[in-house]
Specification:
- The protein has 162 residues and is α/β, with parallel strands linked by helices.
- The chain has five helices and five strands, in the order αβαβαββαβα.
- It has helices spanning 8-36, 53-57, 70-75, 126-137, 149-155; strands at 49-50, 63-66, 82-83, 116-119, 143-145.
- The chain has a five-stranded parallel beta sheet with strand order 1-5-4-2-3, with helices on one face.
- Strand 2 (63-66), helix 3 and strand 3 (82-83) form a beta-alpha-beta unit.
- The N and C termini lie far apart (67 Å).
- Residues 31-35 have low confidence and may be disordered.
Length: 162
Amino acid sequence: MLINSDNRHQLGKNMKLTPLLLVFTLLSTITAPLYAARVLTPETLEGGTIITPQDASRLPRVKIYDLRKTLNFAKGHLPGAVSLPFKPRSAKQVGFDDSKDKLNFSKLPSDPATPILFYSDGAYGWKSYKAAIIAIRNGFQHVYWLREGFSGWKKSALEVSR
């Protein structure tokens, strides 16, 4: 391209846009996987019960397990909940391979007839869904899943422990 007085101004504009386009492209590339990873959890729980925050607050004798990180548990959790941090490694899908996930069963009741409730962050919280499914697959008979998670509990203005 021959630079002359007619196109010199346009060339300067294009050179100013190049860094902006580079930054935009870089940011798009970096953040795209973060948004792609947000997959809604299923709306059913085969072998268990999905429960609302209001109904969960009225469950008698249920053992409650918070699957979020310990730091989030310390910031606030359901009254009576036990911290059970869980980092699943399997795919975020209904037919996940639970052999890739390690759930610490030592904190769960030894009696599989004991009612247990799992929760994590909310409708995108696959940790609690997977924990509920793994518990069901391991013989627990009364498994509840708070699909709305801790965020739903707070929105319902229910008591929070710290």
